[in-house]
Specification:
The chain is an alpha/beta fold and about 475 residues long. The chain has three domains: about 220 residues, 3-Layer(bba) Sandwich (FAD/NAD(P)-binding domain); about 110 residues, FAD/NAD(P)-binding domain, CATH 3.50.50.60; about 100 residues, FAD/NAD-linked reductase, C-terminal dimerisation domain (Enolase-like, domain 1, 2-Layer Sandwich), CATH 3.30.390.30. Helices cover about 30% and strands about 25% of the residues. The protein contains 13 helices and 24 strands. The strands form six sheets. Strands 1, 2, 3, 4, 5, 6 and 19 form a seven-stranded mixed β-sheet that branches. Strands 8-15-9-10-11 form a five-stranded parallel β-sheet. It is globular.
Length: about 475
Amino acid sequence: MGTFDVIVVGGGPGGYVTAIRAAQLGMNAALVEREHLGGICLNWGCIPTKALLRSSEIHHILNRLDDYGLHAKEIGFDAKKVVARSRAVAGQLSGGVKHLLKKNKVTVFDGHGRLNGPGKVAVSKDGESVADLAGKHIILATGARARTLPGLEPDGKLVWTYKEAMVPEKMPRSVLVVGSGAIGMEFASFYRDMGAAATVVEILPDILPAEDAEISAFARKAFEKQGMKIHTKAMVKSLKKSTRSVNAEVELEGGRKIRITADRVILAVGIVGNVEDIGLEGTKIKVDKAHVVVDEWLRTGEAGVYAIGDLVGPPWLAHKASHEGVICIEKVAGVSGVHPLNTSVIPGCTYCRPQIASVGMSEKAAKKAGRAVKVGRFPFIGNGKAIALGEPEGMIKTVFDSKTGELLGAHMIGAEVTELIQGFGIAKSLETTEAELMHTVFPHPTLSEMMHESVLAAYGRALHM
């Protein structure tokens, strides 16, 4: 039996960061991971999908070289090499995580961890015991997996989850994406830019339902302009598989039914927490809707046991998991100045084309909360850098409290907005008002100037519109 100050179960972006921070604080830390260090995000999510999307972005640019006064012959792609590059990127970073854990003297156990009584974790691999661990503090970071729906179960061949969608042996001619959240729209965008016909079915009235309604509507128009077909207020009722394709019966608003045939179906209907087989039985840990219930300090109902990341619910973001882990372990260690995570300052990013990013409240949410608001908007077409890049489609929207000037939310769509949103994230963390943002000098020529203009526009002071 190994004895540790803290045992972290799960080596994803929440788990490995927690273990490293624990070691930095002088704690003897153990990390248990059953598959790949870095978790789903690094190995099968955030990182490899961005590598795929980079390839599709370049493919899109190559097919419009004439817009830039350039030309090339025989533009094409090798699907196997596209996938191989994505896997290589993930492998490189997974190796980097292993190095960081070793550097910080975190003891890593390769196996499946489950609670085995107060202060104990049993580790097994392929049905064989690996280790019995004891620790004063146990942090569960087992993450989540793709949700499935009755009648739409993935088979790994014709009906895919995100895993199969990332490693196609060849590019399908057509895809049907069920679900229009960040994962669904990223895959729809990737396959469309690689030349496949893409259709999206969403049960809610809008695609990207977590985003501001105005940004969602802008995105839909952009995707449909690219040739993507989108059905909202619609539901896939059944799937019938043939040898090489799938026939889907889709019920539209009002009850009318249509049939859509696609080479592959990609399911992107949310995630559920990995709460099974981690030893929750017989403990005081509560599970609600497949997620572990925790308090503001990530404590479960069981003394000495904590939970972080996707396991405890939304927002399902890697950076949220990492910050939760740091907050959790710093609170355990008694670090001064620790405070609970404020989810309103967590940015969200979707890496489709055009990119989408946001932080804080949407205009609708702010009004629903009883806030009187001032709203600023600035279009990409009014920005010199955007035009020079050949990316004039997009907008930046800011929402302020009209009484206090508090920045309530910021919402963006367009080229590289996932790199811009952190500016407004910092502004919210600093409790910045419109005054500080107006007096901030933004460099020219940059896309970031649109952030400034959007703030000015909220107060009737836009200079370039």
